[in-house]
Structure formats: structure tokens, C-alpha cells
TrEMBL record:
This is Secreted protein. The keyword Transmembrane helix applies. The chain crosses the membrane at residues 6-25. Keywords: Membrane, Transmembrane, Transmembrane helix. It comes from Streptomyces sviceus (strain ATCC 29083 / DSM 924 / JCM 4929 / NBRC 13980 / NCIMB 11184 / NRRL 5439 / UC 5370).
Length: 249
């Protein structure tokens, strides 16, 4: 009988220790996630919604809706709350609340303002008079990245802070050449935030992703092209020559 009792007690102690260890690891993982996104328990965040650039009405593209749903799930996992506002209704600075800004500068004025203020090395060619292959080209530093819709599309994913790290809430930018690339960037962030946190911590970063063959694979195949943080934060040099263009092979 004594052996049975000792066995039960030992099993209970082992189970309790296992539960405590799992709880500790889960909480540590959660704290890292909250630190990366700037979303402590019960904090407030801002989801800035763009509009469908191809619509004459104030509509949101369905892929951008999917992107917002993915971000909402991340925010909920952190135990935080989100306020959704349209890009033309955002009339506040940044740093007080974590902000998730979705859409390219043609559909999101807020994105245009963020790029101008914090990413002087990024230029998006949005002039409607530009020929089809040139419009929506991204210039980052001295490099050009052309849009080939449905085949090779680019998106900038950035985590930016104003001032010293840790003192302000970050701004996350999902600036894509097409709506489907915005969703690809949010999905990439959801899948890779732990790796990004290990690499960058609380620091700002800007990475460029390429969405491959979206007409067949949707937003699921997104390749990391490069870390372009330094180039994106350095004022642009003279205009890049077309021979530096990047095209899908």
C-alpha cells in the first residue's frame, strides 16, 4: 500500500511540475510576442484600413479584408484590443498605440505619410500617366522592383519605432504592389514573428518579400528578397537606371 501511495504522489508531483513548466514556457512565449508587437495585456491598437484602388466606391478589397482578419487574430492572441479606422480618418501621430497599416500608397494616404516620414529611401511610382509595366514599381535605394501581376509581386513589411526602442509602440507597415501581397505579408508576419523577434528584437526593420505566382498559389508563397532596412531609411540617390530592374526568372 505504501508503494502505491508513493507512486501516486510521485505521479502527481511529476504532473504538477510538467504543468508548471508548460505554463512557464507558454507565458514566456506570450510575453515575447507581446513585446514584439507592442501589445501588453488589455492594450489598444489601431488597424488602418485602405480602400480598393480599383473601385470608385469606398470599398475594401477582399484580400485586404483577409489581411485584417489575420492581424485581428494576432492582436487577440496578445490579449489586446483593436480599433479599425479608414485611411482617410487617421488624424493622429504614432507611438501611443501599436498601429497596423495595410495597403500601398495609392489606396492608403496614411501609408504614403509613413513612407515619406520614416522611409525616405523608398519611392513607389504611382503616377497614372506611367506606362503599365512601370506603374507601381518600387524603388528602394538604387534598386527597382517591377510589378508583374499574378507572376511576381513585391511587398514591404516593416516594423518601425519613433525615437528610442522600447519607449514607443511600433508601427507595422504592409505596403504591397497588389492587395494579395498585403495578405501575403500579414501571413508571413504571423508565421515568422518569433524568428523576426529573435533577429531584430525591439529594433526597426524593413524587409522586402516577393509573392510568386499568386494567380496559382494565392498569398501562400512569399519569398524573402532582402533586408532593406538601411536602404529604405537612407534618402534616395539619383533615379535608378532600368538596367537594375528585378524580374522574375
Amino acid at each position: 500500500m505504501r508503494n502505491i501511495v508513493l507512486g501516486v504522489v510521485a505521479a502527481g508531483i511529476s504532473a504538477a511540475l510538467g504543468w508548471l513548466a508548460r505554463t512557464y514556457l507558454w507565458k514566456r512565449k506570450l510575453r515575447r510576442k507581446q513585446a514584439f508587437f507592442g501589445l501588453p495585456d488589455n492594450s489598444e491598437s489601431l488597424l488602418v484600413v485602405n480602400r480598393d484602388a480599383g473601385s470608385t466606391e469606398l470599398a475594401v478589397h477582399r484580400y485586404d479584408v483577409f489581411a485584417l482578419l489575420e492581424l485581428s487574430a494576432l492582436i487577440k492572441d496578445c490579449g489586446a484590443h483593436a480599433e479599425v479606422i479608414t485611411q482617410d480618418a487617421a488624424r493622429q501621430g504614432f507611438g501611443e498605440r501599436t498601429e497596423f497599416c495595410v495597403g500601398g500608397p495609392t489606396s492608403n494616404r496614411r501609408m504614403m505619410a509613413h513612407i515619406a516620414a520614416m522611409l525616405p529611401g523608398v519611392l513607389v511610382k504611382v503616377d497614372p500617366s506611367e506606362p503599365g509595366p512601370i506603374r507601381m514599381t518600387y524603388q528602394i535605394g538604387s534598386e527597382l522592383y517591377l510589378l508583374e501581376k499574378g507572376v511576381s509581386e513585391y511587398v514591404l513589411l516593416a516594423r518601425l519605432t519613433a525615437g528610442q526602442p522600447g519607449l514607443t509602440r511600433p508601427v507595422f507597415l504592409f505596403c504591397g504592389q497588389t492587395a494579395i501581397t498585403n495578405q501575403a505579408a500579414t501571413r508571413y508576419l504571423a508565421r515568422n514573428h518569433e524568428r523576426l523577434y529573435r533577429k531584430y528584437g525591439d529594433n526597426s526593420f524593413v524587409i522586402l518579400l516577393k509573392v510568386v505566382n499568386s494567380q496559382a498559389y494565392g498569398p501562400d508563397v512569399a519569398e524573402l528578397v532582402a533586408d532593406v532596412t538601411r536602404a529604405a531609411q537612407t534618402p534616395l540617390p539619383t533615379p535608378a537606371a532600368p538596367r537594375n530592374s528585378h524580374r522574375a526568372s
